[in-house]
């Protein structure tokens, strides 16, 4: 297989973790006989500094000519006071919208060797294995009117049937490949958009008789993610609820530093990035944990290239390296020697 | 002092827990020499059954002539298939809006004798003592347009400066009486309404130089409520974010069955109700935990009547009864004898 990957390192620890993830991608290419061409582009703060634009047109062109996008992280104090159009996260919102990457996939699973880092009790989190499917290009994030004066403000939560159908389908399809259960999260006792959402989920049920589906209100879901997170298989929800719930879910297993994400559209193009941020405080020190970005490469192999075996090889290598007790500074115990970003990736490369 | 309290028992366990809370109110009256007149009204499912209206005009009139409102809980499977205007929760939304009860106060504190029931580790939750201040009559819940067809749907998040100012003031005022820290939660990197919100918080700062204030994005706040809930003192936020975060927060200490709430406006009128629901599955068995409703009476004494000493007497009694190891079935350990709703309240009455 021959594929082109657009690599957007971004800001903070982005370049460090992306460099290691690209190394892993290359190892996979050699071992499984694929050619991955990588080409680099600017996004976020780095793009603002060089091009005065968080998503320059060169980057858009690069991504348009690629089969997948690998992103590090964007943002940092340097750009925090910028006007809203020159903020790093605008690059992220713009790339999602431009490429219509409507489905954000966020897996959260307990990692046995790291479970003691969870703020929750072990018996609550040890069986956690869920996938949050967040709608990423609609709702309050992009609805018009959206403006404020000194006296009032308005944002608009809009969804069309098509936008809801495609994300709900995604949820059902993913559940089929997993434990076969979808929890659709809405606020149908208050919001009209949730009523349409719930109606469409009900209609879709018939197409997926092998999948069990239930509705949960967003406030209940926020509770259940803490009291019984192992209950969930696939959660599918709209953009704003998904933003909140996926971040909430990201901390329950204690392995935020390990969580990958994918933002995909129907034809397979996808953007892959770690869930964690740009961590400007530790940037440039070579101590960042590259696991989440490496696991994002695994998601790329699986969801954009259909390379399941290769994806599993990476996931296994990561688990083995953790089980052997190799950790970067964020995860190492107080008395433990921690590995640098590069040293830890060397272990992964050895495994592969 | 002489006050009139509108009592709206509602559905499920509502009538049982409200009956005990009224008993406590009467004991407080006798002990501290106040007269509390109570008068009963219908709301929710009970009101739909009798008046075909979740908030009948008789109930509105009763509340208009009262100094405070005590509510049990609304809802149950019986009304789940009703059209949206005949759903029990519409009664709740309507009473909030009709009386302009814009500030929802939701305290969450760790109770040492119950901390083992928390899904979180003891060291994470033992110092938790926060107050969530949720805007309750604006935002997505009431903004127009709000409608759906078969093809699309829209809801509107609107806020005026006045609506934001009064809730932000409430947050600052409460922080002053507590640990002096306000965390304002918004999504200012995406929403225009959040930008106005953040601006107003920044302006208000000068009026409360004794209060420390910070901004947090809603997704970060959802994480921090789990990783470090003891960090928070007062959280102030808009309606939808407040709905999600306050329910999330309600489960972290393991004492959901104990949490009271107040929904107040500026002149002191307030509606007081337990955070838990109507629990139709255990209704009528006399086993419900009345603690949250009794603590809601304490909030009423404090926030509507200014009776701090009386409120504290109730809070102390509840803590003492727990420390002595008396629990209703929801909290009793497997080998423990549990008390009925009435027996447990007897202990409180004895304490008082
Ligand atoms: C940076 C921000 C705009 C973004 C979002 O809210 O979508 C982030 O929180 C995320 O979840 O990827
Ligand atoms: C019943 C529902 C409309 C209500 C809300 O969302 O406000 C409830 O969840 C609450 O928080 O009081």
Automatic annotation (TrEMBL), chains A, B:
UniProt-listed Enzyme Commission number(s): 1.1.1.85
Cofactor note: Binds 1 Mg(2+) or Mn(2+) ion per subunit.
Class of the enzyme per the UniProt entry, highest EC level: oxidoreductase
Main location: cytoplasm
InterPro entries, sorted: IsoCit/isopropylmalate_DH_CS, IsoPropMal-DH-like_dom, Isopropylmalate_DH
Positions bound to substrate: 96, 106, 134, 219
Key words, A-Z: Amino-acid biosynthesis, Branched-chain amino acid biosynthesis, Cytoplasm, Leucine biosynthesis, Magnesium, Manganese, Metal-binding, NAD, Oxidoreductase
Annotated pathway: Amino-acid biosynthesis; L-leucine biosynthesis; L-leucine from 3-methyl-2-oxobutanoate: step 3/4
Cofactor(s) listed in the protein's UniProt record: Mn(2+); Mg(2+)
Residues where NAD(+) binds: 76-89
Annotated site residues (Important for catalysis) in this chain: 141, 187
Reactions catalysed: (2R,3S)-3-isopropylmalate + NAD(+) = 4-methyl-2-oxopentanoate + CO2 + NADH
Gene3D superfamilies in UniProt: Isopropylmalate Dehydrogenase (3.40.718.10)
Pfam family, one: Iso_dh
Residue numbers binding Mg(2+): 219, 243, 247
Residues covered by the Isopropylmalate dehydrogenase-like domain: 4-348
Record localization: Cytoplasm
PANTHER family membership: 3-ISOPROPYLMALATE DEHYDROGENASE
Family: Belongs to the isocitrate and isopropylmalate dehydrogenases family. LeuB type 1 subfamily.
NCBIfam families hit by this protein: leuB
Subunit note: Homodimer.
Role played: Catalyzes the oxidation of 3-carboxy-2-hydroxy-4-methylpentanoate (3-isopropylmalate) to 3-carboxy-4-methyl-2-oxopentanoate. The product decarboxylates to 4-methyl-2 oxopentanoate.
HAMAP family: LeuB_type1
Name this protein carries in UniProt: 3-isopropylmalate dehydrogenase
